Amino acid sequence: MIEKNQIMRILETYDLDKLAIATVCSHSSLQIFDGARKEGFKTIGICVKKPPKFYDAFPKAKPDEFIVVDSYQDIPSIAEQLVMKNAIVVPHGSFVEYLGTDKFTDFPVPTFGNRKVLEWESDRNKEREWLEGAGIHMPKLVKPEDIDGPVMVKYHGAKGGRGFFIAKNYEEFLENVDKTLKYNIQEFIVGTRYYLHFFYSPLKTEGYTISTGVLEMLSMDRRVESNADEIFRLGSPRELEDAGIHPTYVVTGNVPLVARESLLPLIFELGERVVEESLELFDGMIGPFCLETVFTDKLEIKVFEISARIVAGTNLYPSGSPYSDLIEPGLSTGRRIAQEISLARKMKQLDKILS
User: Fold this and answer.
1) Which residues are annotated as a binding site?
2) Transmembrane region positions (predicted)?
């Protein structure tokens, strides 16, 4: 992993009055570019083969310029070009997954957030150590031979829903598991899935304060997962199984959600615990993160995963959500990232939010 002092030396070469925000043209780039432009930043879209034509349909979210590479693996070759353009990279799920964790953590361009979080987020075991260390209630782990009811088998890393499957017994586990990949097995929690979109600022001092900085709740969503949300219209699980039809969980979209207000204290407590533990473990995760949870009928919230960057569920709210509107009208997560960069520049504390 590139050392932070190396990144700070690179930043010393920048014209801070001409900062640009760059990201890969995928995932949540529309709101990142739109939010950056609203805060007065130039924008740079990194794309493969050629600029995507659909940006022409959304002029407010079209980047000011594109940098084209032959493949995602070639992104490191444009590092010097990005530095010459005073670029700050905003990572998202596709950016990290397509480039790869090792190449991303070595990428010699100032990046929004703390790269150290990837070590803890991409490894299911370290992720569990982090969350359980924060006092978070997670689904219990199950050994393969002990499977006696529905479990979720999850491979390490973010794969847009391709990285897990459900097994109801040991035989189903053996039929579906890829033993060449690292995996964890968790009990299956019955309830409603809520994806909680937070933002942690180490710079602000007013709001929902924690030991250092402020925690914000920007929005919530639920994911639409290929056939899993509609498949049971065709019959019962047993009938589907007999017909050779199996649910799949590839994410195809997102649905907006609002939680009952009485749950907000618990929601903020969960976010606070996770941030505080991150500060202890690796100097904190900066900016947006998402707790992926299940709300049970007993009004318990169980966290099964964390995404430590902007998630695609925030795309529902380019002009604000029922929560972010109560902070500032029309506030998207993309714009909130740009605001944090702008605030750090004004305070001369870019070192606190970049790595």
Assistant:
1) 27, 94, 225, 254
2) none
